[in-house]
Amino acid sequence: MLFQVYGHSALWQFCGWLMVFVALILANEVARRSKAGGIFFFIVLPAILTIYFIAIYVGAAHGQSWALHNQTYVHMNGWFHYAKLYAATAGCIGFMMLKYDWWFAKQHWFKCFPFVIVAINILIAVGSDFQSAFNGLSHLVQGQSQWWLSSEGVWLYGGWWNIANGLAGILNIFCMTGWWAIYSSKNQQDMLWPDMTWLFILAYDVWNFEYTYANLPTHSWYCGVALLLAPTFAAAFWNKGGWIQNRAYTLSIWCMFAQVFPLFQDQGKFAVLPVLYKDGFMNPAVHPSSVDPVAMGLIAILALVINVVVLAIILKRSKQLGINPYTHEIFVGTKDYDEAMRRA
Question: Transmembrane stretches, by residue range (predicted)?
Answer without folding.
Answer: 6-27, 39-59, 79-100, 112-134, 154-179, 219-239, 294-315
